[in-house]
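User: Hey, my collaborator sent me this sequence without any context and asked if I could get a structure. I don't really work with proteins. Can you help?
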Amino acid sequence: KEVSHKEPKQVKQDVKIPPKATDNPAFETYTEDIWGEENRACESQNQDDEANVAQIRTEIESLFALLPFDIDKFDVRLEPDKTLFVYIDGRDCALLIGEKGYRYKALSYLLFNWVNSKYGYSLRLEIAEFLKNQEEMIDVYLKDIVQLIKLNGRAQTKTFDGILVYIALNKLREMFPNKYVSVRQNEADEKYIIINDFRR
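Assistant: No problem. I've predicted the 3D structure and written it out in structure-token form, which is a compact way to encode the shape of the chain:
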């Protein structure tokens, strides 16, 4: 007998293609939940910041209502980098700033410690245009200092009065993050800044 060789019957199988993640309703719901939570958190943070700024402004105005200064303009806003900008102006701004900016420095210190410890913000205090003018003056002076640092790798500033030493210090540290920048004091209690390489 001849044995017939028949081709085995091919069974057609349905290959199931797994659905894409984006086709999965559960995934879409999960993704929407994540984005929704982030958006709600962001909105909540913005609302908190707005409430904080309004509260800070109210308290600053209440503070100055108790002080013997004719100050009638207040502007408080939060910058994108979480720095609280406080602008104060009025007829007695010069008295509020004080000789060589000593009162300005004291007020800035007090406000910073308050808003930083309670709200976590940094602070930039401007009274009239005092800070702006001081910064512009320091910018002009530091041009020669910057050239000396680039040429010799180190430099020393002149002595500064009041708030100027701290403005210069912050600017130099921003410009030379890889340098040792520090405040020193001479025998006459005058402050100056040295810029040098870090010791290894």
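In plain terms: The mean pLDDT is 83. You can pass these tokens on to your collaborator as they are.
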